[in-house]
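Researcher: I'd like a structural prediction for the single chain below. Treat it as a standalone chain; there are no partners to consider.
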Amino acid sequence: QLQASGGGLVQPGCSLRLSCAASGFTFGNYDMSWVRQAPGKGPERVSAIRRGGDNTYYADSVRGRFTISRDNAKNTLYLQMNGLKPEDTAVYYCSAGWGGGGSRGPGTQVTVSS
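Model: Treating it as a single chain, here is the predicted structure.
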């Protein structure tokens, strides 16, 4: 199971830190990713991290503002989001796998609005 948390309503320019608690599988054996879906749009892979944390991916839309990390000892995935923009508004999901198309749990809503 994957449970994302940490979303909320923030003003442009603010920061949020998302967390994803994993259970029921060996978290450290899997690459992980964050995927978001805005209203009326398809899913977008935002970021991904290799199982060992040694390689990461960022979509052009978030590179330089978002940072993905993981703590395999705590079975937790993180997404630090700085400099949030209104276009970052979406439901954010964590997903098993590098490509973002794997199993997802319930997402967390991020709304960026003044």
